Structures are given as C-alpha cells and as structure tokens.
Amino acid sequence: MLAVLSVALMVVDARFAMLQPLRSQLGVIVEPVYWLGRLPLNLWEGATEELSSRSELAAENEKLKAEQLMMQRRLQKLATLTEQNVRLRELLNSAALVDDEVLATELIGIDPNPFTHRILIDKGEKDGVLLGQPVLDARGLMGQVVEVMPYTSRVLLLTDTAHSIPVQVNRNGLRAIASGTGNPERLELRHVADTADIKEGDLLVSSGLGQRFPAGYPVATVSEVIHDSGQPFAIVRAVPTAKLNRSRYMLLVFTDPRSPEQRATESAEAQEAADRRRQEQESAAPAAGAAASTEQEAAQ
C-alpha cells in the first residue's frame, strides 16, 4: 500500500500541480533536518578553513616580517653609505682647499687606554707616512703621527694631555698655546694674559711656529673666557673644530719644508723662465718663416 501510494503521489506530482503547495510546506519543515544533517560537515569545513587561513596568515606574517627586516637592513646600509658619501665629499672639498700634498686615510682602531687620546690609521711607512706628520679631517686639525709602522700609523689627538699646539687668533693674530685636557670636546689656552684681546667665538688656527704644523689650519673655536682680577692669566677654553670622536676618514698632510719666501721666490723664478721660453719661441717663429720663404724662392 505504501508503494502504491508513493507511485500515485509521484504520478500526481508529475502530471498536476495540486501538490505544489504541500511540497513547499514540507520543504520548510524538512529544511532544519537538512541543516542538522549538514552541520557536522559545515563545522569541519569551517574549522579547516579557519585553521588554514590562520596558518596562511601566520606564514604570510612571518614572510612580511622577514622582508621588513631585510628592507630595514638595506635602509640602514643606504643611510650608512649616504653618510659615508657626505663625509667623503667633505673630505674631498677639504683636500681641494689644502695647498700641500695630502693622502686620504681611514680610522681602523682606537687606543683602549682611557687616559690617552690616540687612534690607529690604515696608512704607514709603505705609504710614505712620516713621524710628526699632521692629520686633519674635513673641519680642521686632529693631531699628528707619533708612531709609524709598515702598514699602519698611530696618531696623537689634539685633546691628549701630552699634546700642545701653537695657535693664533684668526681675528687679530694673537698667539697662544692650545693644550689638551683629556676631554675630546675641549682644549685650553695656556698663559693668556688677562688683558688679551680674545673673546668667545674667535677662531684659533695653527700659527706654524715649531715647524710641526703648517700655518692657517683651523684648530678650535673659543667657547669660554674667564677673567679673574686676582690672577695674571685668563682661563680660556676652546672646542676643537675637528670631529675627533666622530671622523672616520682623514687626510695626512705632506707639508712643504720650504719657507713661504722660498716658495714665492722659486715660483717667481719659474714664471720668469717660462716667460723667457715663450718669448724665445715667439721670436724664433718669424725667423723660421722668413728662412722658409727664402728657400722657396731659391727653388723657384
């Protein structure tokens, strides 16, 4: 009977539309059953997708972190190269302003002794470095070579307590001695009279006295002048113009041993000799032309 009823319902449903409302109502009733039947599969698919998306996001996050780290490293390297390029340009500009022969060098070491201010550079005896040779950066004098080895040299900085340099005030030519204090940011001028014409902001340059440092190189800028009426000398402190604790690239200066008068005399003599040679060449040219025309006339 159930089979006959089923066949009858199938035939009626296929031939007529009488059962369409009933089938719609039954579909609404059966829908929760379908949903419950698919619930385990939906939960499984959702959990799988969630885990997969989470793992993918985690992997992508790790990849992005690695890429960000690489980009930051490249950016840091680029910043380092940019700063190095700026320092080298400053050094080249400084070398262009120096009349003497120079040799570029690089800092490779610092003396670990906190009571001495010495550095190690990558040029030595094989490069022609000399004992006592001045060293400067893009802003001013840094010190002098105190030890020469085959491939490296040791430089004593201006701020070392054992170092002194004769200087003069660029504004008025007042001479003094600038000595190191052990502080990389400060020099002191010894035995400056309390009535001396010196003030804050004055530029101190090398005076050339002592025949060790060439004249005219920036050394320091006066930062403080203390006058004490009870003392014969003023307390004068200055800040080095060179970046003693920052500069990585420096110049070794090969000074000309001749005096300024000798250099001027030799330059004038060389100019006079060149003028004489030019005059001789100019006077010889018409004579050569006349001789050539005479030869042509004789040939004709």
Short description:
The protein is α+β, with helices and mostly antiparallel strands. It contains three helices and twelve strands; from the N terminus they run ααββββββββββββα.
Which helices and strands, and how do they pair?
Elements: H1 2-15, H2 20-97, E1 101-110, E2 118-121, E3 134-136, E4 141-148, E5 153-157, E6 164-169, E7 175-180, E8 187-193, E9 203-206, E10 218-226, E11 233-240, E12 249-254, H3 260-299
Antiparallel strand pairs: 1-2, 1-12, 2-5, 3-4, 3-12, 4-5, 6-7, 6-9, 7-8, 8-11, 9-10, 10-11
- Rg to the nearest angstrom? 44 Å
Span of the ends, CA to CA:
148 Å
Poorly predicted tracts of residues: none
Mean pLDDT rating: 80
Judged by helices, strands and strand pairing, the structural class is: alpha+beta
Label the overall shape. elongated
The biggest sheet, with number of strands, parallel, antiparallel or mixed sense and barrel status, is:
6 strands, antiparallel, barrel
Strands of the widest sheet, in order across it, are 1-2-5-4-3-12
SSE ordering: HHEEEEEEEEEEEEH
Total beta strands: 12
Helix segment tally: 3
Percent of residues in beta strands? 25-35%
Helix content: 40-55%
